[in-house]
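Postdoc handover notes: sequence design on the structure in folder B. Input tokens:
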């Protein structure tokens, strides 16, 4: 059985007869969020039968939803082979100008998606790393996160969403499927999510950053830097041994960036580890000449983690140091903190509950 969300429109045109039916099918899947081929009444009976026989839109299922006080929603997915992964819908207020220049308040949606079940990178602060690596998600398993979240939240097909590949897994370690997912998501006859609205967050696989840059897809890049010296960074992200800070910065310098955009540098702030002024100073130097924006993230403690959440005063001082010297810098609180904090934690909670049930 093939996952229908694994295919670009061109691929479906080659697979289905007559080819124009592929466009209709895309409309059902991505504009109507329909999952039953039988209900796609403008397709011929033969085609509906063929689709039902060879393809499925329900190989992946949503098995749980949690709502946070701040309005973000976390969803747990289950694959056909019984694995779980998660996606989060973040809702943010947005001020826009209408045609007459009046300020109107709207809502902006961002979907945080997973790219793998588990992760090979093994960061010492990250919950996903604890369970090791299980497998890559297919393009369809990535794409379905967006389809399901839009459907479950009754978001109209034309309602814009931003995608951040910041859930479980290292997206650049699942390169081919990631690229296929980006292409499917940006398909004009489908969800039509511009590549400009898709941000790939990576722990810094330098050669893959170069490879992604060479494709010139127009996607946004976020680098999980977290430390400014190699010794500490290797302690936090063991892969830094293979691709050190200098090699990542080099790759970023060569990455094609839209003239109105910036590369985002994620800096996870950990109490007493990387929250000092000296680090801020080195960070400023490191990013010299790169059109960048720094995002300071509060470390989110989880069971068994050796690190602590930083003081707010330290966060603010770190941010001020950078802003005073002309660098764009925001502070991010992990959204959805009251439901299950950083990436990987909802899945962990469920696995635990299941284990309890088995005993
Ligand atoms: N593997 C990619 C994308 C997924 S991780 C990457 O590392 O960039 C997404 C983000 O979650 C990263 O920026 C990571 O720093 C953050 N994160 C992981 N564990 C965290 C924790 N305990 N508290 C806060 N953020 C965390
Ligand atoms: Fe993997 Fe990212 Fe977690 Fe590191 S922070 S273990 S790269 S998911």
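Designed sequence:
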């Amino acid at each position: 059985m093939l996952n229908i969300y694994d295919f670009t429109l061109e691929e479906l045109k080659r697979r289905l007869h007559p080819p124009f039916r592929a466009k209709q099918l895309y409309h059902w899947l991505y504009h109507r969020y329909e999952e039953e081929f039988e209900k796609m009444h403008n397709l011929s009976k033969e085609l509906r039968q063929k689709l039902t026989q060879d393809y499925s839109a329900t190989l992946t299922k949503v098995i749980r939803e949690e709502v946070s006080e701040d309005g973000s929603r976390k969803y747990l997915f289950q694959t056909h082979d019984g694995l779980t992964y998660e996606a989060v819908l973040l809702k943010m207020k947005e001020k826009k100008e209408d045609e007459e220049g009046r300020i109107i308040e709207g809502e902006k949606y961002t979907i945080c998606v997973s790219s793998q079940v588990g992760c090979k990178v093994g960061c010492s602060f990250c919950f996903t790393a604890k369970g090791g690596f299980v497998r890559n998600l297919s393009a369809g398993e990535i794409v379905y996160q967006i389809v399901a979240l839009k459907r479950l939240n009754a978001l109209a097909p034309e309602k814009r969403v931003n995608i951040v590949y910041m859930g479980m897994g290292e997206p650049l370690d699942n390169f081919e499927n990631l690229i296929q997912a980006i292409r499917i998501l940006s398909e004009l006859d489908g969800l039509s999510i511009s590549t400009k609205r898709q941000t790939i967050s990576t722990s810094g696989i330098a050669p893959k950053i170069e490879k992604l840059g060479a494709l010139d897809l127009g996607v946004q890049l976020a680098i999980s830097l977290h430390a400014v010296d190699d010794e500490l960074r290797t302690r936090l992200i063991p892969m830094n041994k293979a691709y050190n800070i200098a090699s990542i910065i080099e790759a970023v310098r060569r990455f094609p960036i839209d003239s109105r955009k910036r590369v985002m540098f994620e800096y996870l702030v950990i109490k007493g580890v990387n929250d000092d002024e000296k680090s801020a100073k080195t960070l400023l130097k490191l990013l010299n000449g790169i059109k960048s924006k720094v995002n300071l993230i509060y470390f989110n403690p989880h069971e068994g983690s050796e690190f602590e959440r930083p003081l707010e005063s330290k966060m603010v001082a770190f941010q001020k140091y950078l802003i005073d010297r002309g660098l764009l810098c925001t502070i991010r609180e992990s959204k959805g903190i009251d439901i299950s904090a950083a990436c990987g934690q909802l899945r962990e909670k469920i696995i635990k509950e299941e284990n309890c049930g088995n005993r």
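Context for whoever picks this up: Confidence is low (pLDDT under 50) at residues 336-343. Don't rerun without checking with the PI first.
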